[in-house]
Amino acid sequence: MKTPASGTAAKPSQPASPATTAADAPADTRGAAPSESAAGAGAAFDVDEALRRIEAAVQPFPKAALFELAQEGFDSAFEQLMACIVSIRTRDETTLVAARRLFALARTPAAVAALEVRALDEAIADSTYHEAKAWQMHAIARTVVEEHGGELPCDEAVLLGFRGVGPKCANLVLGIACGQPRIGVDIHVHRITNRWGYVQARTPELSLAVLQRELPRRWWVDINRLLVPFGKHVCTPALPRCSTCPVRDLCARVGVTKHR
């Protein structure tokens, strides 16, 4: 696995995958409203200090699924893309089980393309929208074999060209597998950075645009690695654990009305 700097085959006849969500669909963030901005980044909120504290705080917690899989050796761009598709609208614990089951059967585009869609569906059956995902993943594998010589390139345009793959998955693949400075904005990164007051944006896509302007590049890949476990165990959607939060003295607690 490359360590990030700190800092079409014929498409199946099935309908577009319902797995595509707002956080996973391409969006044009140009011309964002003035409210989509960094709120005094660096002055009102010390993001370097916050992420350093969170690095220590999340050590006892399970890693985010894609980072865990990469550590286990499933670190190619294709494996990371397959795992990210499995992860959409699916808990990390379930993603890990389903992805490992898939990779026990097939780990390369050629091997996945050679599977029957039914077998692929059975492998990832624990994940949400598994049938649609199986068709989507099979089509991607065939495309990689037929158009890219059997190896998924570390190319944003190629990744975003696949049906159902949006900025979140593309950036996670490029960051984790390809060593490129990319920000994977999922619901945790979106929620927490807005709660801090570091970002003021209505959607994950707009949060991504702000973070690309304001977040130091040394944190681009790691912000997802850190905020996923932090968001699951400390800065939770409801009743966040503000009383024991390592960044409580920095956080504006935007939108928080009740906490633990």
From TrEMBL:
Coiled coil (UniProt feature): none
Secretion signal, residue range per the UniProt entry: none
InterPro entries per UniProt: DNA_glycosylase, HhH-GPD_domain, HhH_base_excis_C
Compositional bias annotation for Low complexity: 8-39
Occurrences of domain HhH-GPD (ranges): 86-233
Source domain of life: Bacteria
GO terms of molecular function: class I DNA-(apurinic or apyrimidinic site) endonuclease activity
Keywords assigned: DNA damage, DNA repair, Endonuclease, Glycosidase, Hydrolase, Lyase, Nuclease
Chain spans, region Disordered: 1-39
Membrane-spanning segments: none
EC number: 4.2.99.18
Broad class of enzyme this protein falls into: lyase
PANTHER family referenced in this protein's UniProt entry, alphabetically: ENDONUCLEASE III-LIKE PROTEIN 1
Name of the featured protein: Endonuclease III
Organism whose genome encodes this protein: Azohydromonas lata
Gene designation: nth
